């Protein structure tokens, strides 16, 4: 007869949720069921490794992690195994259930973010791990390092995960960070094309930083100018009158430019309003007509 603990592990490997539920209900002490021949992986470790969200949810509901977060002999959590095997849905579920385990590290100093950066299939986990909680201490950091001084950006570059490179750089990862061997993430590029892509990404983000800084300075200048304008209008008496005088001067200047003396001397067109022509009084009398039948 097969041992119940072996049957439980086999049911998890086969993703048979109904069988897992029946075995656990009959043998509640087998809920965690660590396998001492396989790094002491618990039932939740196996479910996360296999990507079984239904079984993982049942185990947690049954109290699998009530005492503490499960770890195997490598100090890997179920979240780490899910990220290592590319099971985004299970990893997301575990991270949301236990956000405090996001920053946990294993024996080699890698957290879930570093592991997700090594697997292109787990790239979708990166934004979630960086913003899993409103409490900063529960969120992963792009600046965290393993025992060899490697950041998540080092692991993403070494694994060739180009999308992870972009996400990490956008989150503020330092492309010039060096590990214990004095190597930057760029040095771990798998191909020449990946190296060129990495360099272009760094240049793009540096350009955006400079543009953002310039825009911030412009906004500050505009804001300061707006404050000075308001204060000048409110200070003392006649502030509004001063502004109106300036506007009148500007309008008058425009009118003077539009109507020069040359324009005034031009004859009016037929049907237009008569203008006062610049003629002498003598010529004015000469062109005047006498009324018929009068001595004038």
TrEMBL record:
ANK repeats: 39-63, 148-180
Keyword Repeat: yes
InterPro entries the UniProt entry points to: Ankyrin_rpt, Ankyrin_rpt-contain_sf, Dendritic_Spine_Reg/Scaffold
Residue segments, region Disordered: 214-296
Biased composition regions of type Basic and acidic residues, renumbered to the chain: 214-223, 274-289
Keywords: ANK repeat, Repeat
Annotated protein name in UniProt: Ankyrin
């Amino acid at each position: 007869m097969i041992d119940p603990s072996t049957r439980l592990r086999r049911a998890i490997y086969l993703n048979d949720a109904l069988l897992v539920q029946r075995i656990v209900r009959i043998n509640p002490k087998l809920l965690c069921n660590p396998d001492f021949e396989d790094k002491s992986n618990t039932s939740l470790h196996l479910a996360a490794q296999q990507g079984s969200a239904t079984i993982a949810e049942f185990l947690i509901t049954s109290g699998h992690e009530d005492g503490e977060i499960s770890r195997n002999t490598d100090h890997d959590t179920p979240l780490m195994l899910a990220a290592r095997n590319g099971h985004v849905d299970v990893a997301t579920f575990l991270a949301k259930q236990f956000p405090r385990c996001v920053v946990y590290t294993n024996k080699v100093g890698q957290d879930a973010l570093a592991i997700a950066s090594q697997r292109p299939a787990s790239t979708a986990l990166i934004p979630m791990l960086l913003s899993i909680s409103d409490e900063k201490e529960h969120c992963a950091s792009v600046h965290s390092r393993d025992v060899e001084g490697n950041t998540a950006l080092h692991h993403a570059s070494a694994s060739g995960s180009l999308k992870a490179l972009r996400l990490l750089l956008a989150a503020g990862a330092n492309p010039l960070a060096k590990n214990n061997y004095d190597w930057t993430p760029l040095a771990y590029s798998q191909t020449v094309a990946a190296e060129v892509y990495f360099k272009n990404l760094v240049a793009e983000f540096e350009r955006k930083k400079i543009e953002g800084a310039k825009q911030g300075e412009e906004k500050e200048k505009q804001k300061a100018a707006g404050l000075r304008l308001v204060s000048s209008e409110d200070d003392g008496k006649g502030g509004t009158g001063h502004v109106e005088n300036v506007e009148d001067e500007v309008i008058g200047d425009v009118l003077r430019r539009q109507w020069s003396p040359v324009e005034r001397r031009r004859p009016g067109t037929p049907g237009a309003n008569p203008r006062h022509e610049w003629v002498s009084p003598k010529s004015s009398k000469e062109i005047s007509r006498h009324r018929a039948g009068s001595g004038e």
